[in-house]
């Protein structure tokens, strides 16, 4: 669901780190053939925790999450962003979100930092994960994809 502010500002790329990464199931369902560009990138200041078949990014100083920066097709960005919000069960302002979509700096493979949308664990879930969750080693899910 895009807001009026998002529509006025225009599209931002989306940083993906889980099932929306190339080669993962939701990439094919939601993004394949609908992007203008996909490139390796790193989200600094966050770590990954295991979820039930997918990871959660939790904002934490000093951490790094490896993923891809996805530039949505400019003709369809509103529709695609709304579909990603629905996939992540994110509704702006709703108290019971598991994920929230936030704008954060992301470092591309060439070292350039850009602003991007990132779905991170909502505060109550982030606290539970930090206390009881299992961290994903190396900040890359599925494991072993670092440096891609």
Calculate the mean pLDDT score and round it.
91
The radius of gyration is 14 Å
Helix amount: 10-25%
The CATH architecture would be: Roll
Q: What is the tally of helical segments?
A: 4
Could you give the order of the helices and strands? Answer: HEHEEHEEH
CATH homology group: Gamma-glutamyl cyclotransferase-like
Largest sheet: 5 strands, mixed, barrel
Please report which band the strand proportion falls in: under 5%, 5-15%, 15-25%, 25-35%, 35-45% or over 45%: 35-45%
Domain Gamma-glutamylcyclotransferase AIG2-like: 14-141
Enzyme class: transferase
Organism: Streptomyces gamaensis
InterPro entries: AIG2-like_dom, GGCT-like, GGCT-like_sf
Question: How would you explain this protein's 3D organization?
Answer:
The protein is of the alpha+beta class. It has a single domain, classed as Hypothetical upf0131 protein ytfp (Roll), CATH 3.10.490. Helices cover 23% and strands 38% of the residues. The chain has a five-stranded mixed beta barrel with strand order 1-3-2-4-5. The longest helix is centred in the middle third of the chain and has 11 residues, at 77-87. Keywords: Acyltransferase, Transferase. Its EC number is 2.3.2.-. InterPro entries: AIG2-like_dom, GGCT-like, GGCT-like_sf. Residues 14-141 form the Gamma-glutamylcyclotransferase AIG2-like domain.
Can you summarize this structure?
The protein contains four helices and five strands, in the order αβαββαββα.
């Amino acid at each position: 669901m895009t807001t009026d502010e998002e529509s006025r500002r225009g599209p931002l790329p989306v940083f993906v780190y889980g099932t929306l990464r190339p080669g993962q199931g939701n990439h094919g369902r939601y993004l394949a053939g609908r992007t203008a560009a996909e490139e390796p990138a790193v989200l600094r200041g966050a770590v990954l925790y295991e979820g039930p078949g997918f990871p959660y990014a939790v904002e934490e100083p000093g951490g790094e999450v490896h993923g891809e920066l996805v530039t949505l097709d400019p003709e369809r960005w509103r529709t695609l962003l709304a579909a990603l919000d629905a996939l992540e069960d994110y509704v702006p302002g709703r108290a019971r979100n598991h994920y929230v979509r936030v704008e954060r700096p992301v470092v591309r493979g060439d070292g350039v930092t850009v602003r991007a949308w990132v779905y991170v664990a909502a505060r109550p879930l982030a606290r539970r994960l930090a206390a009881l969750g299992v961290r994903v080693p190396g900040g890359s899910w599925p494991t072993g994809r670092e440096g891609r």
